[in-house]
Amino acid sequence: MKTNRKIFLLLFLFITVCSFSQNKWTTLRISDTFSPKNDISAIQFDKAGNMWAGTWCGLYKMIDGKWESAGNQNAYIQAFYIDNQNAKWVGAWGGGLSKSDDGASWTTIKDIQPAGAINIVTADREGTVWFGDWNCGVLSLKNSKWTSYKPEQISLGDNTVTSIACDSKNNKWFGTYHGITVYNELTGSKLYNRENSKLPANDVYSLCADSKNNIWIGTTNGLAWFTGKSWTIYKKENAGLPSNLILSIAEDQKGFIWVGTDKGVSLFNGKKWTTYTVENSPLVDNRVQTIKVHQNKIFIGTGKGISIVECN
After folding, report:
1. Percent of the chain with pLDDT over 90
2. Range of 111's domain?
């Protein structure tokens, strides 16, 4: 019996080493010491290819291999986004919404009051920038015009918008604490929740519209894959996910789906799941809060820094 266990252990270690040899892992930290600066909430790249990171302690930009403060010092960055015009948007807890065109000087946006506790910023294919607020629902900016959407315009589950995804059909998906809403300017909106769909939980934390216009929905009780007609639910009980609390989702250039949880990150290639944790991989921390795909690399933002996976 002991011999069988030794063989199994050696086989497991061999498979693990082979798996990691296919991908190169590196770690980035903004501070070499234990610091909220390493608690990563957002990762973005500007048009010049420079990396930016939003943290629990301000915004940072990597210049010549070194991190430098880019403003909003000591602020908890809830949302950070770089739009098609290379403008930088920051939503800071208690600090409202700020914009910078040059990445150096920042302007506080006053046009959106009483909104201002921005959770998420993204843009659709037409360049319209979309904002999800903590208490005031959805806002958009198009051609310098701000629009705040009322409940009769978009059927949100509630006015706390935690996540937004835009697909290639110009549908906007909004995650809230009471379900997910799909909205199109031509066809209107529809709310999906536990009562009228197979959504595993109403608390939606993350969204990703993939290259085939399917929507991936991260909830507090697992991951949902919605094609617009059918639902598939993935949980740690049936998919090998390390946790059912889904914090972040991204699709890489191969069409594979990366899923960040509070206990590690999982990769789904369409057939099988592979999970990486601090226990079995170079992942810097198990709490995966944001995932950004850039070129052939996966940037995994955690509570203790950034893990970078260079895929072959």
Report:
1. 81
2. 25-310
